Input
Amino acid sequence: MSIIKNISEIRERARKKIEDGAMTNNYGLDKDQAVTVLNEALATELVCVLRYRFHYFAASGINSAGIAQEFLEHANEEQMHADQIAERIKQLGGKPEMSPAFIAKHSHSEYVEGTSLADMMREDLIAERIAIETYREMIRYFGDKDPTTRRMLEEILAKEEEHADELADLLFAVTPSSGEEDGKLYFKDEAQATAENQSPDSDKTKATLQGKSNSAK
Ligand SMILES: [Fe+2]
Ligand SMILES: [Fe+2]
Output
């Protein structure tokens, strides 16, 4: 038995207000509020694009080439998120806000330049952690009332988690404290593997570090 009870009414409604495109009468949320929530996410992504791109150009020197490449990749992925969100705002009948003043005011994360490579990575990691927490909130908000937006946000969240994980790996590989001295290198997920690995001077640790810095390129 069909679960659609009132197909003739639905057909009639579909014929009316066709200029609303994908937006139908039974959209489960306040449309304006949904657009506001998405515009804040859009502002956050655009700030992330700018911050990562700045970090890409600011990271210079032979030792930071791999990390600069990582910044560029993240910048491009944040731009893709921004595009997806802007597209969805349009589908909902809203206006994607891209004015610099709006972006600066409504972004969840901040634009921080950082003063060293480690500092840049730390700021990026903080911004990713803010994005992760706010995307989780947004996913709960859209829930089953707007599954299309929820699924889009779930995909973006998975990518932000990946970004945060990569940054944490890189950050803890570069620095035990400031990142500006040739101190001991440390990987939080490898330090306790074997007693040998706990010494930064062991051959095995050196080999692991080499592999890690290669994989960052
Ligand atoms: Fe993003
Ligand atoms: Fe990200």
The helical segments are 7-15, 31-58, 65-91, 100-106, 117-142, 147-174, 203-215. The pocket of fe (ii) ion (ligand 1) is lined by residues 45, 48, 78, 81, 156, 160 (CB under 6 Å). Residues 180-217 have pLDDT under 50 and may be disordered. The domain at 29-181 is CATH 1.20.1260.10 (Ferritin).
